[in-house]
From TrEMBL:
It comes from the Bacteria. Pfam families: ABC_tran. This is ABC transporter ATP-binding protein. Gene3D superfamilies: P-loop containing nucleotide triphosphate hydrolases. Residues 7-257 form the ABC transporter domain.
């Protein structure tokens, strides 16, 4: 165990029962997965097709599902079990971003009220004024501001705008780690790169690390410092994105790559979308540029 690692996942498995309470049928959704994320701000991607166990893994890290075996540690402290890190400390350190931003907020509360409550509940602020300041600061990190959001309900935003607001919500407690489960798969194609670039910008500027869960190898390659490929519950290969894509050791990875018509063409398309829909205050990052030049 290394206390400077933000996250350690040691031999973690999750078995689900299939076919009712008394059934003996089981499914191993996550099978003996191990990896660690050191304290350098980074994007750590977990890539695989539907049903390979990515969401189950994310939910175990977020403490929404208990592992059947193995251990997850956050800054050296257990995430599960009787000595686990307390809930409040956990929520200050780790925040989720989910696939559907419309499900991340209440439909009955203005989004600004929701953000204010988040700041108060997480004790980032002592009163409404401080909470609004915290919300405004977080919204500015994603290219918005409280003035553009105040009093509006989720139906008044596009999916892309609302996903940016859910990134802002996640930033309110100044977390160490954000677990983003398919965060761009329900966002309009024109906004996808915008959000992906925003993640990179947050890594560089705020020192937050992301676990980026996706079926889309192309955005993972573009965005990540590290890629783990998952198939049937197992991590089958992992490493630097350029190493994996230039030299995949597994047939499954080659199949995933085959889903991208040609890597080079895809980057051109992503860059074109990015040019047409700029983030505004987006930083072009060294890491993204590095991956682009290797493609
Ligand atoms: N609560 C549950 N009970 C039973 N089976 C489950 C449960 N949650 C997930 N599974 C099963 O575990 C397997 C892995 O699911 P999981 O959602 O983790 O995969 P995934 O890679 O995230 O896929 P997707 O992108 O479609 O969500 C699937 O076969 C799924 O049906």
């Amino acid at each position: 165990m290394n206390d400077t690692n933000i996250l350690e996942v040691n031999g973690v498995s999750r078995v689900f029962r299939r076919g009712g309470m008394f059934s003996r049928n089981t499914l191993t959704a996550v099978d003996n997965v191990s990896f660690s994320i050191d304290d350098r701000p980074q994007v750590f991607s977990v890539v695989g097709e539907s049903g390979t166990g990515k969401t189950t893994l994310a939910r175990m890290i977020l403490r929404l599902v208990e592992p059947s075996s193995g251990e997850i540690r956050l800054l050296g402290k257990p995430v599960n079990g009787k000595d686990r890190i307390d809930n409040f400390a956990f929520r200050r350190l780790v925040q989720p971003i989910f696939q559907n931003p419309f499900e991340a907020f209440s439909a009955y509360l203005p989004v600004s009220t929701y953000l204010r409550r988040t700041a108060l509940n997480l004790k980032v602020a002592r009163n409404d004024r401080e909470a609004d300041e915290a919300a405004d600061q977080a919204l500015r990190s994603v290219g918005l501001g409280l003035d553009r959001v105040a009093g509006k309900y989720i139906r008044q935003f596009s999916g892309g705008e609302l996903q940016r607001i859910s990134v802002a919500r996640a930033l309110i407690p100044d977390p160490k780690l954000i677990v983003a489960d398919e965060p761009v798969s329900m966002v309009d194609a024109s906004m996808r790169m915008n959000i992906v670039n925003l993640f990179r910008q947050i890594v560089e500027e705020k020192g937050v690390s992301f676990i980026y869960i996706t079926h889309d190898l192309s955005t993972a390659y573009y965005l990540s410092d590290h890629v783990s490929i998952m198939n049937t519950g197992r991590v089958i290969e992992q490493g630097l994105p350029s190493d994996i894509l230039d030299n995949p050791s597994q047939d499954y990875t080659r199949e995933l790559m085959g889903a991208i018509p040609t890597i080079g063409a895809r980057w051109t398309e992503l860059e074109e979308i990015d040019r047409r829909y700029p983030t505004g205050d987006r930083a072009t990052t060294e890491s993204a540029a590095r991956h682009q030049t290797t493609s």
